[in-house]
Amino acid sequence: MNDALRAVLTDLMETPGLAGHEDRVRARIAGWLRRTADVEAETDRMGNLWTTFPGEAGTPSVLLFTHMDQLGFVVRKIESDGFLRLERLGGVPERALAAQAVLICVGGGHDLRGVIANKSHHATGPEEKYQVVRYRDLYVDAGFDSEAEAADAGVQIGTPVVYAPRAMAIGRNRVAGTSVDDRAGCAALIALAQRLAARDGGPTVHLAFTTQEEFNLRGALPLAQRLQPDIALQIDLMLASDTPDAGDLGDMRLGAGPGMSLYSFHGRGTLNGVIPHPALVRLAEAAAAARDLTLQRSAQTGVLTDLSYVQLVGAGVAALDLGYPMRYSHSALEVCDLRDLDGLAILLEEMLARITPGFSLSRDGGAA
Are residues 57 and 92 part of one domain? Predict the structure, then answer.
């Protein structure tokens, strides 16, 4: 299973798909669904992609989704000497930008290479050596000598720019590279699609890959409003705390199994987050025990997913965030472990099999 996961994940990580510009990655995911699960997918005006596996009548319906977009930049200005100024799209950390290679996506599947400039060391004064350069002061060198040359190459204000896509194996089971967040979640759901295509019974499952999560977390909303699920299970990274600089975040380790969020809260203006439905927490715990999986637990402030908004659709949706531990979030080189993705697909399969016509979502003593 890990070899198949690696192949899908590598392909998706190497395909650019900035938030709002997901067309190429959406096409790759649709192709993988056809090849591996023999299913066709639908799209909507937002660019969301989904396929439905019909289930038993009277069983709660499930929206199981992950986002396919990635964070990055758009061109803000083209200087007269051909250098490009960028505007951030999503939570891009300024201290991780200088000297990064980027891909400038000028349209029609055509891309240009560039580098975010880093002032030459020999020209850097003592007062600058320990400073983080603001993103508005950074510029991209894409090999142009003039604004006209950049324009002739197809670069315009608003042109999407992403970290130069790459995926590489580190160790036996780990993958490092761009957009692990959340192409890893996409790979896990593609693996699950194969299992759902072969199942007998269970709930109706809408398996979805959503847009613009890195922009405003609301790309999934029109799809949720359309499908009106009873249950929403969202898949995304969970902050690994097994590095020397992250030990106080919690107890989430790469290679130790999939994770479940018991609390998330952004706190920076949105006042939004997710406290999961207790029946779904019990469901995840029972499913993990049945398949002999370690289910890691997370409780974080400063994180937010699009589930925060999906849970408020209609009369309210029973919600739970699930995922996999990941290191170095929102940098050009994130790291995940294929064993966690495999375990996540197994966990989801078991959870869905346990959602029967008698599954209760009552807050007044109902149990899974």
Answer: no
Structural domain contains residue 322: yes
Q: Are residues 51 and 83 in the same domain?
A: no
Number of folded domains that form the chain: 2
- What CATH number does the domain containing 80 carry? 2.40.30.40
Indicate which CATH number applies to the domain containing 233. 3.40.630.10
Summarize pLDDT for 192-228 with one digit per residue, the tens. Answer: 999 999 998 899 999 999 999 999 999 999 999 999 9
Q: Any bridge partners for residue 260, and if so which?
A: 297, 322
Last residue of a domain, one of 108, 134, 163: 163
Residues 15, 357: Cα–Cα separation, whole Å: 40
Contact status, residue 194 vs residue 347, Cβ threshold 8 Å:
no
Please give the Cα distance from 7 to 41 (Å, whole number): 21
DSSP 8-state assignment for residue 132: P
Burial class (CB in 10 A: 0-12, 13-18, 19+), 310: buried
Hey, what are 349's tokens? 């399969």
Whether this model's pTM surpasses 0.90: yes
Q: Around Cβ 8, how many Cβ atoms within 10 Å? A: 23
Helical packing angle, 23-37 and 180-197, nearest 10°: 30
Contacts of 244 (CB under 8 A, 6+ apart): none
Examine residue 362 and state whether it is found in any structural domain, yes or no.
no
How far is 226 from 213, CA to CA, in rounded Å? 18
Which residues, 6 or more positions from 321, have their beta carbon under 8 angstroms from its beta carbon?
234, 236, 260, 261, 264, 274, 276, 305, 307
Q: What does the pLDDT look like over 289-321, one tens digit per residue?
A: 999 999 999 999 888 899 999 999 999 999 999
For residue 156, the enclosing domain spans 72-163
Please spell the DSSP secondary structure of 177-210, one letter per residue. ETTHHHHHHHHHHHHHHHHHHT--S---EEEEEE
Average pLDDT, the chain: 94
Lowest mean pLDDT among 58-62, 131-135, 304-308, 361-365: 361-365
